[in-house]
Design a protein that fits this description.
By secondary structure, this protein is mainly alpha-helical. It has one domain. It contains 15 helices and no strands. Helix 8 packs antiparallel against helix 9 and helix 11 packs across helix 14.
Length: 312
Amino acid sequence: MLARFFQKSEPISFVSLLFLLFLIIVFSSFSPLHVVTNLPFIIHVISVFVFFAFIIFLVNFIIEKNHLTPANYYAVLLFILILGLFPSVFVISKISLSHLFLLLAVRRIYSLYSKKDILSKLFDSGFYIGISFLLYPQSILYFFLIYFSYFIYLKIINKDLLIPLLGFITPIFICFTYFFIFDDLATFYSIIELNIVFDILKMYTYGFIIPILLLLILLFWSLFLVFTKRQIFEGKDKSSIKLTIAYLIISIFVLLLNNLEIEETIQYLFFPIAVLIGNLFYLIRSYWIKDVLLYGVLLLIFTLPFLQETFL
């Protein structure tokens, strides 16, 4: 039922996605044993919903505009479900804002395939990643995604490669100038400082083991089908899949560079995983398999907090 409903890109389907997002945010905003419905709670839910609804609009735009999956809402649905598996990301913080600006950069990076307005797209993607870097320094690694996209879509090397660097430096220079004028360079240096810490036990601390194992199984399944049935995809689609895999690899490194903040930085993985698993759903022809997977994830979203409260 769910698989058929989200198979086509129709307005009612997208509205349903936003409603599902709202339900998940409300559910994740209170303790399983303590329900709070006062004014601060309502304001929190509304603000978080508006913020993540904008991200959903952006994710849907990137996927549809660049044809990252066939014309359906599977990838967007999966993005929302993955959010629900990691409810700690439902906060408006520096990391979530950094992720937002990263998605704005990704929107321009994927659009390089059209070979139109290349200079502005290169500058914009570098600029957005520069802002993302100021909010969360580890996101500087995504700067390499610009050049990877440039090489797989345009397949040339020229002076245009300096444009992303100019875009990246621009917000950093503006930030530096601001703190220089107010004689507070110590704050600027603290903003751009890279803190690299690795602690594998953090995944267990935040109860991420079950959701991560589930996503790994689906991810490896999707990669297997994508590589074994790559003849189904056209040339541009193959390049986009390569770019998405590169996006995923960089996101893994970003996560590992400072996983003391894994409860929020885990969200950097969501877009490439959703796109890859979305293609898996396209390749799976049996609707009952898709429904079992979707209902299984939904069940896990609404039962995992109670299981954690009981057993952890």
